[in-house]
Amino acid sequence: MKSKAAFLALLVVQCVGAFLFPLRPSWQRTEANQLHMSKTALQSPVSKNLALPSSVQVTLLDRLGNGTFGGVHLAVDEVRGEKLIAKCARAATDDSRAKTNAAAYLDIEGFINSKLCPLHNNTNNADATSSCGMQHIAPYLGEVVLDDTKYLIWEASGEYTLEDYVEMEDGWLQLANDLGVSLNEEAVADYNNNDESGSNQREQLHNQLAAEVLRQLLEGLAYCHSRGVCHRDIKPANILVDPATHTLRLIDFGSACDMSSWSPKKLGYRGEDKGPRSILYCAPEEFVDPESPYAFDIYSAAITWLRTMLSDDNIDSENTLASDESEYPHGLAEEDHLFQWRIAVRDFGHNLVSWEEWATLHNSLPYGWNSLFGKSRQGIQSLRLLSNMMSYNPDHRMSASEALLCPYLNPGCNAEAPELPPAMPWSIMSHIQRWKKDKQVHSWQDEECNIDDLFTKVVAAEVSAADLTSRLEKANGGIEVTGGGDKCDTGLCDGDALLAIGSIDVETAPLEHVNELLEQWPRDKLIPLLLVRDSV
Questions:
Q1: DSSP strands (E only) in 133-264
Q2: Residue 204, H or E segment
Q3: Count of CB atoms within 10 A of residue 218's CB?
């Protein structure tokens, strides 16, 4: 009876809160081209941040760089001789508001890191400098005052960010090495060959790296979101690579929001008064939606991942991916190219699928797109995940925890479900949705989600439009090849199920739509297909 009474009391409180604080999603009221930056100073958190353990004695060394609101120094722990990173508030101008904001951003970053990386008992014990349990957050030690200046202190855990690897020549190869991604011994033997086998092995390594980068990025976000933290500035420059542990680490939480608080004034969150930190990577809603706050990071993660993995251009280099005449000669490494690509997707209503179909027919895909998405079942699965992460409506984007269970990142269907983000306080609908999603995620783990792969294989073929159009018909919820008799001619076999045209996912597309695509295909070019064929 007491438990029922408590539940009813909580239900009443949530209902009252839902009416007292009605919130309309910002994506419904903000135009995609409107960007607003705050004209008022930020407020520092009231809660006390984590103090640096007295067993750590910090000496500042060289200054590594300055940002808009902070300065970063290399430091050393004089007791253990270990390298540290120290960050202080440093405004780019002498404006009083800029200085106040710089101090507030540093306080917010300290508070968020204290929440994500709590030290054991915060006392002088031998484990005081151990990193937090979640390996994808930079290991935060606490704050200290040196010469009347407050510094936040981290253990040094890597020198380069994903931005650095994007700018390196053949940076993805170095990134694969630093994340411990490698080929098997047989594949390594063919890797350096300047023939088709060598090209295939480089492509295989690149695709393995793509899955690893996205998995680690989503694991870090799943951890942050499960603790109610929205990073709000996910981009390559804020993702550190730690070669010692082969790990990606999220950094720079100065723009983060703590959305788990029951207080109406959430730390770091000011609705439309706090604009995006990095326009190239922000979601279409531009401001964190109070009903779906963590979806903002999911969109930014998609753009970050795509730029990292499409950082090559079609140039003469032994380590570039296989050339494809249907692609634009540039990837997305240059910010101008990334900006142009985002504008192109926006012009299709932020619909990645619609843009991809147009770009395929007009030879405008970024370089490397087909290699990443159009050569295998795994590639199509990754494109489906990317399309969801880039949904225009934040409510339609899956959480980082759900994304980690998708076939692309969990092909064996054996991954454990990470903790889901908490429901939004004062929103009974959010609590109901959170309960439903938790039930769905855990029930999904018990399903036979990979059974088809045991009896089918994916094959590639190139055919003319004339050979293909007359042999397609609806069947078994998809589109199958018919009319060829018992033999497989022109690369097509009776019973083949159509999976993709190039990298365009057509597995569940209407036959009418597929025929429209085929009619628009250039007549002087063969049509690349991915087909699902029985393997028995």
A1: 140-146, 149-155, 160-161, 229-230, 239-242, 247-250, 257-258
A2: helix 196-226
A3: 28
Neighbours of 266 (CB within 10 A): 21
- Report helix, strand and coil shares of the chain as percent, to nearest 5: 40, 15, 45
What is the spatial distance between Cα 154 and Cα 138, in angstroms, rounded to a whole number? Answer: 7
Where do the domains of the chain lie, and which CATH numbers do they carry?
Answer: 58-155 (3.30.200.20), 160-444 (1.10.510.10), 455-534 (2.30.42.10)
Place of tokens 């009896």: 455
pLDDT 10s digits, 7-43? 444 444 344 333 333 333 444 433 333 333 344 455 5
Q: Specify whether the CB–CB gap between 463 and 526 falls below 8 A.
A: yes
108, containing H or E segment: helix 96-116
Strands in 140-146's sheet, in edge-to-edge order, are: 58-66, 70-77, 83-89, 149-155, 140-146
- C-alpha span between 289 and 259 (Å, rounded): 11
Residue 435: C-alpha distances to residues 12, 289, 441, 507 (Å): 17, 20, 10, 31
DSSP track, 333-349: -SHHHHHHHHHHHHTTT
Asked if 271 and 287 touch (Cβ cutoff 8 Å), the reply is yes
Three-state secondary structure along 46-62?
CCCCCECCCCCCEEEEE
**Two structure tokens written together for 487:** 């033999």
Distance between CA atoms of residues 220 and 211, nearest Å: 14
- CA quadruple 207, 211, 212, 218: dihedral positive or negative? positive
State phi, psi for 299 to the nearest 5 degrees. -65, -45
Query: CB of 505 within 8 A of CB of 380?
Result: yes
Measured distance CA(464)–CA(482) in Å, rounded: 16
Question: What distance in Å separates the CA atoms of residue 371 and residue 34, rounded to the nearest whole number?
Answer: 35
Ordered mean pLDDT values, 10 residues apiece, the chain (536 residues): 48 38 38 37 58 88 85 93 93 84 89 81 39 75 92 94 94 95 64 64 92 97 93 95 96 88 62 68 89 93 97 59 62 94 96 96 93 94 97 94 92 79 74 75 59 79 86 88 72 90 94 93 90 85
User: CA dihedral in degrees (496, 499, 500, 506; nearest 10)?
Assistant: 120
Q: For residues 457 and 377, is the Cβ–Cβ distance under 8 A?
A: no
